[in-house]
C-alpha cells in the first residue's frame, strides 16, 4: 500500500511539473521570443527550458524568433547546448531555410559552420534564397555545397525559383554553378518556360546562352 501511495505521489508531482512547464512554454517563453527579450530567454534556457519545443503554430523557438525578427533571441538560441539546428517546423522547413528567405547571410553562414544542413530533401535553402533573388545568399549556399539542380517537392529547381524573383543576377549565378534551365517540374514546366510565361526576355536570353 505504501508503495502504491508513493507511486501516486510521484505521478501527481510529475503531472504538476509537466503542466507548469507547459504553461511557461505557452506563455512567458513565447512572449519573450516575440519581444526579443534575449536575457529572459537566456535565463529560461539556464533553468532547463526546452529549446526545441514547438508552439501551437508548429514552429520551434529558433524559427519563431526569425519570424518575429527577434534576432537577439535567435543569437541566444543558437548558442544553447541542446539546440537542434536542423529542426523542422510543421511545414518541414528548417532554420537555414528561413534565414535564406530573409537574406541574412552572416547568420546563415554561422549556422552552417555549426552544423546546419545546406541541402534538404524536397524544398531546400537554395530554393528559398533563389525565390527572393538573394544573390549573396545564393553564392554562399553554393560555396558551401548546395546542389544547384536540387528538385523541390514538386520538382521545381532553384533556377526555376530564381525566375520567379525576376532577378537576372540570381539566374546568372545559378547558371554559372551548373543549374539546368531546361529541367522540368512535375507540371512539365522548365525555368525557360516560366520566363516565357512571365514575359521576361532578358532572363530567357541568359538561360539560352
TrEMBL record:
Organism the protein comes from: Advenella mandrilli
Keyword Signal attributed: yes
Keyword Repeat carried by entry: yes
ANK repeat locations: 121-153, 154-186
Taxonomic lineage from the root: Bacteria, Pseudomonadati, Pseudomonadota, Betaproteobacteria, Burkholderiales
Range of residues in the leader sequence: 1-23
UniProt name for this protein: Ankyrin repeat domain-containing protein
Sorted UniProt keywords: ANK repeat, Repeat, Signal
SMART domains in the record: ANK (SM00248)
Amino acid at each position: 500500500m505504501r508503495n502504491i501511495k508513493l507511486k501516486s505521489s510521484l505521478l501527481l508531482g510529475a503531472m504538476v511539473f509537466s503542466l507548469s512547464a507547459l504553461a511557461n512554454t505557452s506563455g512567458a517563453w513565447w512572449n519573450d521570443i516575440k519581444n526579443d527579450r534575449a536575457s529572459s530567454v537566456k535565463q529560461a534556457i539556464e533553468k532547463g527550458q526546452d529549446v526545441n519545443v514547438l508552439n501551437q503554430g508548429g514552429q520551434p523557438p529558433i524559427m519563431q524568433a526569425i519570424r518575429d525578427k527577434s534576432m537577439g533571441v535567435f543569437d541566444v538560441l543558437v548558442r544553447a547546448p541542446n539546440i537542434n539546428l536542423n529542426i523542422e517546423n510543421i511545414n518541414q522547413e528548417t532554420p537555414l531555410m528561413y534565414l535564406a528567405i530573409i537574406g541574412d547571410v552572416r547568420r546563415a553562414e554561422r549556422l552552417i559552420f555549426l552544423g546546419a544542413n545546406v541541402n534538404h530533401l524536397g524544398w531546400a535553402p537554395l530554393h528559398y534564397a533563389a525565390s527572393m533573388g538573394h544573390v549573396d545568399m545564393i553564392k554562399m549556399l553554393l560555396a558551401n555545397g548546395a546542389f544547384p539542380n536540387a528538385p523541390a517537392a514538386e520538382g521545381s529547381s532553384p533556377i526555376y525559383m530564381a525566375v520567379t524573383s525576376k532577378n537576372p543576377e540570381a539566374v546568372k549565378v545559378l547558371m554559372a554553378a551548373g543549374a539546368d534551365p531546361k529541367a522540368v517540374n512535375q507540371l512539365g514546366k522548365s525555368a525557360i518556360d516560366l520566363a516565357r510565361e512571365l514575359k521576361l526576355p532578358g532572363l530567357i536570353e541568359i538561360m539560352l546562352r
